[in-house]
Specification:
By secondary structure, this protein is an alpha/beta fold. The chain has helices spanning 9-27, 46-57, 85-92, 114-127, 164-170, 190-194, 209-217, 249-260; strands spanning 2-6, 35-39, 66-70, 72-74, 104-105, 133-136, 158-161, 184-187, 198-203, 235-240.
Length: 263
Amino acid sequence: MRLIIKENYDAMSKWAANYVIDKIAKFHPSPEHPFVLGLATGSSPEGFYREIVKAYNEGKISFKNIITFNMDEYVGIPEDHPQSYHTFMYENLFNHVDCPKENIHILNGNAADLEEECANYERQIAQVGGIDLFLGGIGADGHIAFNEPGSSFESRTRVKTLTTDTRIANSRFFDNDVNKVPKYAMTVGVRTVMNANEVLIVANGHNKARALQHAVEGSVSQMWTITCLQMHRHGIIVCDEPAAEELKVSTYKYFKDIEGNQL
C-alpha cells in the first residue's frame, strides 16, 4: 500500500486529481475502450472534484470516453433532494464536464426492487470489464462507501443499515437533525471496491486520524473496513497532515521518505 502525506487539504486534493488525470491520459480512452472510474461522495472528495473541473476547463481532461460508477446512495429520498448523492454528483462534477449521461451510473435508492437494483449494478460493472480506478473516502470509524464496521470483505453491492455514528456524522448535511438522515443506504461492497484495478482513498482532518492509523499500521479487520486496502495489489491513500497525526513517527518518516524518492 502506498501512503502519500500532503501538507493540507488543497494539496491532497490536487495530488489525487493529478494522479487520476495522468492515469486517464496514459490509458488513452476511446469509445471502444473507455476508462471506468469509480467515484465517491462526501466532504473529503469535494476538493478533488474542484480540481477535476478546473482541469476540464483547461482542456486537460475529457469525460467523453469515461464510464462512471458511484459508490452509494441513500434509500428513500428523491434523486433531486438537496442531499441525495445524485444531486451531489451533478452539482460537483457532472454539470461541469462532458460525461455522456448514459455513461453515468448511480444507484437508484427509490427502485421498486432494491435487491435487483444492487444485483444489476454489479452486472453493469462486469459488462464494462470492471472498474479501472475507484476513488473513495474514509469514515471516522474506518468505513469505505457505506460498508460499516463488521462488513464482510466479500460483500457486493447491497442495502445497508447505517450506524448511529454515521447518521450523526452526516446530520450536518440534514440541518443537524439526525432524524432527517435516512436509516438505509445502497452501497457497493468491499469486494466490489477491491476488484478495481486501483483504489485511491482520500483522507483529511483530525477526525480521520484514528481510522488512518488502523489502515496503515493496524491489523486487517472487518471492524475497520479500510484495512482491506492492505491486501489490494494497487492501493493508495493520500491524506493531509492532520489525518496523519496518529501514525508512529517512524511510520510517518518512512512514507515521507518513500514519497520523496518516487520517480
